[in-house]
Amino acid sequence: MRRQEGMSSLLLVLLVLVLGSLTLQGTSIRHQAQVSQAGLEKAAVTDSAHVESLLEWGRMLSWTVQPTDHCQTHPAFKGRVCLRLFVDGSGVLIASSGEQTRWQTGTLIDSTVQFDRHGWSDFCPLKETVQCQLP
């Protein structure tokens, strides 16, 4: 009889160990998923900062005023900025870095591109989305 009581105590200890091991494994999987998600969010925030900086840098550049596409790259940021001018005198500045893209609308006035003060957007401001893609 005593032998059976010792066996049930051993089984109870083993059961607690198995349950603890499963709990730790589940916690580890959840932790790995959170670390992965944090890495993706960090990359998105970095790309967003780069594209905002590229857009502002592009606004400060002196662009040639011909109805063609012009592109520049900045060595500090991964991405590029392009100016697309149209024959009607309007234009759009396109900045892209990683998965992020921003647009800034503008107008050609006296051979100078004047960008709209509140014209930036994180979605294509033009009717034809093809015109919003980088060349």
UniProtKB/TrEMBL annotation:
InterPro entries (UniProt xref): DUF2509
Pfam families: DUF2509 (PF10713)
Name of the protein this chain belongs to: DUF2509 family protein
Native organism: Scandinavium lactucae
